[in-house]
Design a protein that fits this description.
The chain is of the alpha+beta class. Helix content is 42%, strand content 23%.
């Protein structure tokens, strides 16, 4: 598989798709993708919060984790309960290629914010 992408004139990502290589069967990959769903982290976060898994951390750290989870849910999962593994790969690449989310410094990729440790 390979990523194919296009940029606008202002270097904004126009499109990003995951394409099968010549030796890969697109229909088989589609069937495989349907068998590999990934649950939205917002669902997992809610389950953990209900169990009290975050009770030992500060309200500030809880809010940071919640905010990051909302961003992932919105921007990567498009608020869907789950997406297939290939869609996840494309969504993650879109975020990584978005200069508002990630910055390149001295040939290294730097996230603009880091989630607190739990």
């Amino acid at each position: 598989m390979k990523f194919d992408f296009e940029y606008d004139d202002d270097i904004t990502l126009k499109s990003l798709v995951l394409l099968p290589d010549k030796e890969e069967d697109a229909d088989e990959l589609y069937v495989l993708s349907r068998q590999l769903p990934v649950t939205n982290p917002a669902i997992v976060f809610t389950e953990k919060a209900k169990r009290g898994d975050f009770n030992a951390i500060s309200d500030s750290d809880y809010q940071k984790i919640l905010d990051r989870t909302k961003l992932i849910s919105t921007h990567i999962f498009n608020s869907q309960p789950s997406i297939n593994i290939f869609r996840l790969a494309v969504s993650l690449m879109e975020v990584l290629l978005d200069p508002e989310m990630v910055e390149l410094k001295d040939k290294a990729m730097v996230l603009l914010s880091r989630p607190p440790k739990t």
